[in-house]
Structure formats: C-alpha cells, structure tokens
C-alpha cells in the first residue's frame, strides 16, 4: 500500500483484528454467522497483508500473483455460495477487488495502478470505490439505532455470546469496507 506509513499500519491493525474476530465467529452457534465468517476472515487477513506499508516490506512480484490466485479461488467460492445467499455477491465483489489490486501491483510493481498501467484501470478503480463507498454507507445505516427510543437496529444481542452478536459482524463488515476504500484510494 502506498501512502502515509501510519495510515498503513492502522489499516493493518484494523484488518488483522477484523480477521481475528471473523475466525472466532466461525465457532458461532448461528449457521448464518459460520457461513460467512471464513470468507470474511480471509478478506481481513489478506487486506492486512496487502496494507503493510510498501516502504517497510514490499513483497516480491510473485507474491502479488499468489494473492491473485488465493483471492481468485475465494471469488469462485463466493460465486458458488451466491446461489444460496445474496450476501455472497458482496464477497464476490470483494474478492475480485483483491484480485484486481494484486494484479495491478504485480504489473506495475512499486507504482500506482492508475499511473502508467493499461487504459481503463482508473475506471475499474473508480467503480470499485463507488461500490465500497455505497456499501460502507449502507452498513453504517444498519448499525445506527432504529428509533430515537434507543432500540437497536440489528437486535440488541441480549443473552447472546459475543461471537454471535450480529451487530459486531456488521461492524466488522463496515470496517473492512472502509479499509477497502482506503486501499483503493492509494492505488
């Protein structure tokens, strides 16, 4: 990731913490939580690795192709799972965005994808930015209280284990969406 080192490290911490929480969600008693937690953990840890500031640890060119293969496989799994749940379409877009960023970094190592790359690359980046910005806004509204009386918009979580709380899963998705926007902006 290119940009200020402090912002990169904060993004690494945020994405790694999100990935770790998603790993814990894989032990949830709720089937819906378990179904999506693995893909979200992969996305969180992958984003953490890609967000390490380039000045500190620029991975070799072949590593970017490795990321592209891993996230390509994740995209195929998300495509397969999308027949059961529309939420997996978001996982598909996220995995494809990771493939896109990985390939862009492999093609233009140490550079920005929009500078000197093939024509049309900035268009893809822009479309992905619009998608993830809309996703972040939508996720944020789902976390906001439903009414002024203080009723939670997602189910207050009374009596649930902390790994089963839906609002925490939404907060993780929100933070990964923000992270994706930050990563796309630095391309």
Overall description:
With 187 residues, the chain is an all-alpha fold. It has one domain. It is 68% helix and 0% strand. It has helices at 5-25, 31-51, 61-81, 87-107, 121-143, 166-185. It is globular and about 45 Å long.
Largest sheet: none
User: What's the tally of helices?
Assistant: 6
Give the tally of β-strands: 0
Measured on Cα atoms, how large is the radius of gyration?
Answer: 17 Å
Helix and strand composition category: mainly alpha
Gist?
The chain has helices at 5-25, 31-51, 61-81, 87-107, 121-143, 166-185.
Topology of this structure?
Blueprint: H1 5-25, H2 31-51, H3 61-81, H4 87-107, H5 121-143, H6 166-185
Keyphrases for this structure?
187 residues, mainly alpha, 68% helix, globular
């Amino acid at each position: 990731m290119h940009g200020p080192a402090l912002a990169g490290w904060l993004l690494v911490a945020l994405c790694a913490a999100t990935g770790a929480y998603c790993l814990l969600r894989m032990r949830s008693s709720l089937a819906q939580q378990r179904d999506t937690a693995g893909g979200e953990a992969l996305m969180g840890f992958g984003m953490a690795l890609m967000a390490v500031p380039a000045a500190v640890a620029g991975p070799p060119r072949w590593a970017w192709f490795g990321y592209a293969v891993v996230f390509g496989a994740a995209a195929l799994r998300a495509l397969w799972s999308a027949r059961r749940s529309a939420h997996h379409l978001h996982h598909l877009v996220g995995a494809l965005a990771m493939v896109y960023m990985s390939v862009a970094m492999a093609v233009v190592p140490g550079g920005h994808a929009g500078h000197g790359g093939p024509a049309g690359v900035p268009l893809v980046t822009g479309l992905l930015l619009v998608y993830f910005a809309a996703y972040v806004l939508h996720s944020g509204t789902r976390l906001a209280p439903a009414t002024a009386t203080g009723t939670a918009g997602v189910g207050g979580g009374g009596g649930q284990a902390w790994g089963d709380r839906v609002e925490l899963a939404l907060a993780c998705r929100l933070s990964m969406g923000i992270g994706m926007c930050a990563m796309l902006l630095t391309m």
